[in-house]
């Protein structure tokens, strides 16, 4: 479950009103309030928008303090599950304000990210198992097991899996995730 109190804390630290964050992120005042009060979990798109409005990475919103050496054991990984999605996102890097984040995405058969997302930085992905399609702008790229791809994150993008098996991919992202 997502801790909406982190959004409230960061918003307060930046001296932003609910309206200010709504204007910066494109998320309604009502939705931000519900998230902060832990009444609802944000969708992936909403989480990206909040990160953009707060100028932080996803791992910062989910996270802890930065340390000199950081290790994430498999058993200690944070998972992100989004409403209306069977996909699972595992954070492979420690939750901090570093300049690179790594995630493992498990896309179930038939899973489609409905909305294109865009944010600052770059992304590089590697398909560990199965196949997946990434839409970059108006162009679809089918990635098979062992394939990799790199692109500017400002290019609107989304993932889907039209195959009959779970697709597993690992992604490295620089910059702020939205």
Automatic annotation (TrEMBL):
One GO MF term: DNA binding
Q: Spell out the InterPro entries in the cross-references.
A: Cro/C1-type_HTH, Cupin_2, Lambda_DNA-bd_dom_sf, RmlC-like_jellyroll, RmlC_Cupin_sf, TransReg_Diox_bact_type
Keyword match Membrane:
no
Q: Does the keyword Membrane apply?
A: no
Which SMART domains does this one have? HTH_XRE
Which PROSITE patterns did the record assign?
HTH_CROC1 (PS50943)
One Pfam family per UniProt: Cupin_2
What GO terms fall under cellular component here? cytosol
Q: Which intervals hold domain HTH cro/C1-type?
A: 7-61
Q: Which UniProt keywords apply?
A: DNA-binding
Q: What is this protein called?
A: Transcriptional regulator
